[in-house]
Amino acid sequence: MPQGNSGNSTEQKRVVDFNEVRAQRLDEKRRKTERLFFKQLLSVYSVAGNSGMTPVELVDISEDGLAFQVPYDRTGTAKPWPADTDNVPIRLYFSQDTYLEVYVKIVNSRPAIDRNAAYVRYGCAVDQKTASYAAYQQFVRFLEMYSEHAHKDLGDATVFYL
To answer: Is residue 130 part of a domain?
Structure first.
């Protein structure tokens, strides 16, 4: 005997996993916080061959890897950057004269449009064997915790100077 259900046989019940929804929202908040941090407080450069330091824009960061982008050269006069995809040095400047250097291996690249500008975006694996990796790992963990607990300043508190 077929089992019946109340009414429409094509109706499916939907179960919402609140943990999954919360994780997605925290991930979105983390990415927004990281990008704000990268743009406002951190300068990032790569030493690309003999051309000196090249500014790069971090897009995403994790313990295992990072993504950065560089403006796309529409003139076609510049050589593809970087030429060597292994051991690309990335310098994270926390002040004008101090930086944390990590080395990455570029595993993919693709064109990207961000804020109406053309970029080449690189996905990279971070070399975990370097001495600086432990500091990099702690920095990523700090960003994760910061983005989870940070609050947007709404200007609702008055600052008193003594």
So the answer is: yes
